[in-house]
Amino acid sequence: MLIGYMRVSTGEQNLDLQRDALDRAGCDRVFDDVCSGRATERAGLDKALDIMRDGDTLVVWKLDRIGRSLPHVVGLVGDLQKRGIGLKVLTGDIDTTTVTGRLVFGIFATLAEFERDLTHERTMAGLAAARARGRAGGRPRVMTKQKLKAAMALTADRDNAARDVALQLGVSVSTLYAYVDAKGQPRERASELLGKRGVRPKIAA
């Protein structure tokens, strides 16, 4: 069975282009979300993945419709492959149910690993520079409003480890989690820096 998925960032954008492409591809069912690319909660995608079984194929218009980042997409497709589910990208000549498609996606997986290595390298370089300026060691610096906003964005991306985020911001992991949860949502303590209006409501699991 072919299961289509489409996404737009805001309600002002139109899904018709993606819907028409998925219909032409012969999708049996189509699910959608209206949310930004960085959103961690995607009800439509979750429903699509829940009903899919071994031998099914997830069809999307573009690769960026299903993931927040290349490493995230690679991880998602890896999970699909373990379940015997394929991925077909209509505008990218990617079809993991074919030998050629798997080869193409293998290149993406290599690029994702390269991206993770670069991120780690930049983090380590930043720490080395901080140590060179004499800012390493001692009690971790306190959370600030600017750090908190960065912490929310970085922690929301599941490809970023909490330890690396804390190191990058110059705080301890315990301090990081005192202000944000594992999904990057601000905790009650964050209101001290953001103000009551700055705290986003937690999204129910």
Keywords:
DNA recombination, five-stranded mixed β-sheet, 8 helices, DNA integration, DNA binding, 205 residues, 2 domains, alpha/beta, Resolvase/invertase-type recombinase catalytic domain-containing protein, disordered C terminus, Resolv_N, Rossmann fold, 5 strands
Summarize the structure.
This protein is of the alpha/beta class and 205 residues long. The chain has helices spanning 16-24, 43-51, 70-82, 99-132, 145-156, 162-169, 173-179, 191-194, and strands spanning 2-8, 29-34, 57-60, 86-89, 94-95. The chain contains eight helices and five strands.
Explain what the structure shows:
With 205 residues, the chain is an alpha/beta fold. It has two domains: 2-107, Resolvase, N-terminal catalytic domain (Rossmann fold, 3-Layer(aba) Sandwich), CATH 3.40.50.1390; 138-198, no CATH class. The protein is 47% helix and 11% strand. Strands 2-1-3-4-5 form a five-stranded mixed beta sheet, with helices on both faces. α5 packs antiparallel against α6. The longest helix has 34 residues, at 99-132. It is globular. The model is unreliable at 136-140 and 198-205 (pLDDT under 50). Belongs to the site-specific recombinase resolvase family. The active site is at residue 9. One of its GO terms (molecular function) is DNA binding.
